[in-house]
Design goal:
By secondary structure, the chain is α/β, with parallel strands linked by helices. It has 15 helices and 13 strands. The chain folds into 2 domains: 183 residues, Glycogen Phosphorylase B (Rossmann fold, 3-Layer(aba) Sandwich); 186 residues, 3-Layer(aba) Sandwich (Rossmann fold), CATH 3.40.50. The chain has a 7-stranded parallel β-sheet with strand order 3-2-1-4-5-6-7, sandwiched between helices. Strands 10-9-8-11-12-13 form a 6-stranded parallel β-sheet, with helices on both faces. 42% of the residues are buried. It comes from Brevibacillus thermoruber.
C-alpha cells in the first residue's frame, strides 16, 4: 500500500485540546504508512512542541488575522507538499483551507472539536463564524467528531450521516499512570502552592473562558467552605485566560484568598493532578472533556457537568459524579459527598480508569484515523 501524505492545518495560537489532539495523533501514526506535516497560522508554543517531537511544521504566521494573502500561501503550500489528505481544525483553518483546496486534488477532512455556539459568545462573532463554517462545508469530503454529541450536532445542521465518523480523542496515558511519582508530586506542588499536606484539595484544569463555568465552581467552593464547616478544603485552578481577573475578584469577594490558588498555565498537568484529591469540571458545554480523561487516568475522582460528550464516559456514581450545568447547590453537595466518602472515591477511580484504558488510548485513535484516511483516498 502506498504511503499517504497528510497535511494538518490549524491556527495553533493556543495549546488546548485541539492542539494536544493533533500532537498525539501525528506522533502516533506509523511513519512507514504516513508522511505528515502541520501548518500553523501562529508560530507559538504549539509549533515548538511539534518540532520537539520531530514533526515538520509549516508556519504561516506572517499574515493578519483574516489576510487574503493567507489563501495564496495555503495554495502554494498544498502545491508543494502534494497532500493526499488535508485535515483541518478550527473555523479559520477550515474556511481558508476549503477555499484553497479547490481544484488541487486532496481529500478534505475536518475534525470538529467543539460547539461553535459556546466558543463564540458574542452574537455577531457567532453569526460570522457560523456563516464561514456552513457556507464552505460542501467542499468537505468528511467530518470527524470527537464525540457522539458533536456528531449529533453535525447531523442536526444537515451533514449526512455517511460523511461523519466519531473518533474519540486519544491520549498518552503513561505520564498520568506514573503512580510511583504521586507522593513526590503531591509533596512538591503542595509546598509550591502553600497547601497543607492534610488539606482536601479540589482542582480544575481549564482555559479561563465563559463556557468553562468557572465562576460557578468558585461559588460552589465558597458554599462548601462556608456552609459545611469544611475547614480543610482547598481549591487550585490551573490555567489562564480572559476570565482570570473576574475569578480573582470573585475569590476576594468570598474572602477565599487563603483557600484558593491560581496556578497559571502549566505543562506539568500530570503532576498537578497527582497533587490533588478530586477534580471538578463545571463547564456549560463540552465537546468531549479532555481534562476529565486526564484526571480519570491519574486516578483522581471526578465531578463533571452532565453535558455534551461528557455524558458518554462520565456515568453518575459509576465513573464520576455528574451535575447539571449551572446547578451550584448540587455541585456543592457533590463536592461535600466526595470529600466525605473514601469508599465512593475508590469505586469511582477504579471504574473510571477502566473506561479510559478501554476507550481513550492514542493507539485506538491513530488506528481508526488511519483507517479513515485509507478509506477516503
Amino acid at each position: 500500500m502506498s504511503k499517504l501524505r497528510v497535511l494538518h492545518v490549524i491556527g495553533g495560537g493556543e495549546f488546548g485540546g485541539a492542539e494536544q489532539h493533533i500532537l498525539n495523533l501525528v506522533t502516533s501514526l506509523p511513519q512507514e504508512a504516513v508522511d505528515v506535516a502541520v501548518v500553523c497560522f501562529y508560530n507559538s508554543l504549539f509549533a515548538d512542541e511539534l518540532r520537539k517531537a520531530g514533526v515538520s511544521v509549516i508556519p504561516l504566521d506572517r499574515f493578519g488575522r483574516f489576510d487574503v494573502r493567507l489563501l495564496k500561501a495555503l495554495r502554494e503550500t498544498f502545491r508543494r507538499f502534494q497532500p493526499d489528505i488535508v485535515h483541518t481544525h478550527g473555523v479559520k483553518a477550515n474556511f481558508f483551507s476549503r477555499l484553497a483546496v479547490q481544484g488541487t486534488g486532496p481529500v478534505l477532512v475536518t475534525t470538529v472539536h467543539s460547539h461553535l455556539r459556546y466558543d463564540y459568545v458574542h452574537p455577531l462573532a457567532y453569526a460570522a463564524v457560523t456563516l464561514m463554517e456552513r457556507s464552505t462545508r460542501r467542499w468537505n469530503r468528511h467530518f470527524v467528531a470527537i464525540s457522539g454529541a458533536l456528531a449529533d450536532i453535525l447531523r442536526q445542521e444537515g451533514v449526512p450521516d455517511d460523511r461523519i465518523s466519531v473518533i474519540y480523542n486519544g491520549m498518552d496515558l503513561a505520564p498520568y499512570r506514573q503512580t510511583h511519582r504521586r507522593d513526590e508530586d503531591r509533596k512538591r506542588l503542595r509546598a509550591e502552592w502553600n497547601i497543607p499536606d492534610e488539606a482536601f484539595l479540589f482542582s480544575t484544569v481549564a482555559r479561563f473562558v465563559p463556557v468553562k463555568g468557572l465562576p460557578l465552581l468558585v461559588d460552589a467552593f465558597a458554599r462548601l467552605a462556608r456552609d459545611h464547616g469544611a475547614e480543610d478544603v482547598r481549591l487550585v485552578m490551573v490555567g489562564d485566560g480572559p476570565e482570570r481577573a473576574l475569578l480573582e475578584t470573585k475569590v476576594r469577594e468570598h474572602r477565599l484568598e487563603d483557600r484558593v490558588r491560581f496556578a497559571g498555565f502549566r505543562q506539568d498537568i500530570p503532576a498537578c493532578l497527582h497533587a490533588c484529591d478530586a477534580f471538578v469540571h463545571s463547564s456549560l458545554y463540552e465537546g468531549l472533556g479532555y481534562t476529565l480523561i486526564e484526571a480519570m487516568a491519574s486516578e483522581v475522582p471526578v465531578i463533571a457537568s452532565n453535558v455534551g460528550g461528557v455524558k458518554e464516559f462520565v456515568k453518575d456514581r459509576e465513573t464520576g459524579l455528574t451535575v447539571e450545568p449551572g446547578d451550584v447547590e448540587r455541585l456543592t453537595r457533590a463536592m461535600q459527598e466526595l470529600r466525605q466518602s473514601p469508599d465512593l472515591r475508590e469505586t469511582l477511580v477504579r471504574n473510571a480508569l477502566r473506561t479510559v484504558e478501554d476507550t481513550f488510548t492514542i493507539e485506538r485513535m491513530a488506528e481508526r484515523t488511519l483507517a479513515l484516511y485509507r478509506r477516503l483516498v
